[in-house]
Amino acid sequence: MSQAMQDDLDIRQLNALYTDAVTRRDGALWGSLWHEDATWHFLGEPIQGREAILATWEGAMAGFPVVFHSHHSGLIDVAGDTATCRWSIDEDIIDSDGKGLRIIGVYNDTCVRTAGGWLYAMRRFDALYYGPGTLQPAHVLPYPDAMNHPQGG
Q: CB–CB of 92/68 below 8 Å?
């Protein structure tokens, strides 16, 4: 496999892990996907550094008991040890008041290759839709604990 193909697969895996971590509310995994000096543009505010990014995410997630997050249509441009990426995303959410919320938007990223693999160096999210959703709390099923161990472990 060429290096270009491997980079593409590895960056797509980074995004798959991000999506999985959001949906499963796995802060340890989610935080591990960021470079220690990363910047996350969250609601127009730049958050600097992995620890601050994770703390902000955990605070935000506390207001959303249910989040289904999906990445789509990724574009990746690798130049050496840096990649610029754009991803369409959508989220279906139930907030702490039990109201359905839908968010659709675009992530623009800069990823960096490290000894441990590709990480986010910068993520900026721009919402294209932020409004009422169709999820109803009475119809949400609990996340099966066994799903945290997909290999049956």
A: yes
* pLDDT for the residue numbered 5: 95
- Give the separation between CA 148 and CA 153, rounded to whole angstroms: 9
15, 29, 30, 64 from 116: Cα distances, Å: 15, 14, 15, 31
pLDDT digits (tens, 9 = 90+) for 61-77: 999 999 999 999 899 99
Q: Find the CATH number of the domain harbouring 55.
A: 3.10.450.50
Number of domains in the chain: 1
For tokens 């703390």, name the residue.
Answer: 55
Whole domain around residue 84: which residue ranges? Answer: 3-138
Report if residue 152 sits inside a domain.
Answer: no
- 0.85 surpassed by pTM: yes
